[in-house]
Design brief:
- The protein has about 140 residues and is mainly alpha-helical.
- Helices cover about 75% and strands about 0% of the residues.
- The termini are far apart.
């Protein structure tokens, strides 16, 4: 699992550095894309568990700082999922310049599309589960 995670990171680093739009801000882009994909995967699993197995199980953790429910859910997503995953990815990739080791370890081109595939499947899976839960079973 760790090897696959490192291949995804290396793939995102290589593809971001090659892009004309984000080659100057590649650390930010890598962390943002990777954290968003992982957060949406965890959110998808949590939505299924919360809807069908343990309804209202995590309501005690809910932040209710806005009057709008959508803003509260977005704040919960950012605070409980996105920011901790961003911090973990930052420490895992950039602490002691670990990204240099990852670039050297996975410099062949056999896995270059795995990051894009993972990111695409994460978004597709999130919207497919959203469609399944909130539109078909409502």
């Amino acid at each position: 699992m760790k090897k696959l995670y490192e291949k995804i990171i290396a793939s995102l680093i290589f593809s971001t550095k090659r892009s004309d739009y984000s080659k100057d801000i590649w650390p930010f882009t890598v962390i943002l894309n990777l954290s968003a994909a992982i957060s949406f995967n965890i959110a998808s699993i949590w939505m299924i568990i919360n809807k069908y197995f343990f309804p209202h199980f995590c309501d005690f953790m809910s932040l209710e700082i806005f009057s709008n429910k959508t803003y509260n859910e977005l704040a919960n997503f950012i605070v409980y999922l996105f920011l901790p995953i961003c911090l973990f990815n930052y420490l895992y990739i950039f602490y002691k310049k670990r990204y240099v080791l990852l670039e050297e370890k996975y410099q062949n081109n056999n896995h270059m599309k795995i990051g894009r595939i993972y990111f695409g499947l994460s978004w597709f899976g999130y919207f497919a589960i959203f469609f399944w839960i909130y539109i078909i079973f409502k």
